[in-house]
Amino acid sequence: MLRQEPSPFSAVAAAGRLRAICSIAYSSGMEHLLEVSSAGMLVASDDAATGLRAVGREFHARGWSLGTSSNYSVVLDRDPLELLITASGKDKSALGPDDFVRVDASGRLIDPAAAAGRKSSAETLLHCLIAEQIPAVGAVLHTHSVWGTILSRAGLSAGEQLSSLRIAGYEMLKGLEGIATHDTHTDVPIFANSQDMVELSHRIKTVFDAADWSGDGRPPLHGFLLSGHGLYTWGRTLAEARRHIEIFEFLFEVTARQRMLPSA
Ligand SMILES: [Zn+2]
Fold this sequence. Notes:
With 264 residues, this protein is α+β, with helices and mostly antiparallel strands. It has helices at 11-27, 31-37, 39-43, 48-61, 112-115, 124-133, 146-154, 197-210, 238-260; strands spanning 71-78, 81-86, 100-103, 139-143, 162-168, 185-191, 223-226, 230-235.
C-alpha cells in the first residue's frame, strides 16, 4: 500500500515555504522589506513627523522617492493654515525627526529660529495650494517614480502646457477615494514642468478652480502629474494619501506596461 505523501500544496507545505522565504529574506539582508510592512502602523501615528518618516522609508524602498527627490506634508492647522513639510535636500530613506519645517499658507517658515537653517522644499507652494483649494485635505504627498515619469512625458506634446492621462477599467481604481467600481475612469491632469513655482501653481489653480469640489462623494481629481517630474496626490489623512500614491503607482505601471505589449 502506498504511503500518503503530504501534498506539496497543503497548508503545512505552504507554511514551510513561507518560513523558508522569511528566513531567506532575513539572511539576505532584506530586513528593510519587513520594516516596510510596519509602515502602515507608523503612518497612522498621531505624530505627523513619525508618519512622514515612515512614508519616506517605504517610498524610498519601493523606488518612488529616490535620493532627495519628493516632498511630503501634513496639515497641522487650518485657521490659519499651517503645514509640516519635509525640509529641502533631505534623503527620503533616512528622514530624521528634525528634517521638517512648519510653513504658513504662503509657504513661509512659521518659526525660522526653530528651523535652524533648514529650508522648506522648493515645491512647498504646491502643497499650500492643494491644502487651500481642497478643505478636506489632511496630507499631500509627492513622488518621482519611474512609471509616473514615463507616462507624464508620453502624455504631453512639445509646447503643450496641459494634457490629461485617462486610466480606465481597472479594479484598482477602487483604491481611490469615492470610486466603487472598476467600470469607470479617472483623468489625471498633466502639467508642463517648471522651476517657477508661482507660475506653475497658477496653472494648477486654474484646473482646480474649474473642477466641482462641492460633492460629498467622489472628488473630481485625485492627483496630477508634472511632466518628466512626478506625481502629486493627497488624502483626508496621511494614510489615505499614502494609499493614493500606492494605487496610482500600480495604475501607472500597468498602463505603461500595457502600452508596451504588441497589439493583438
Ligand atoms: Zn518634485
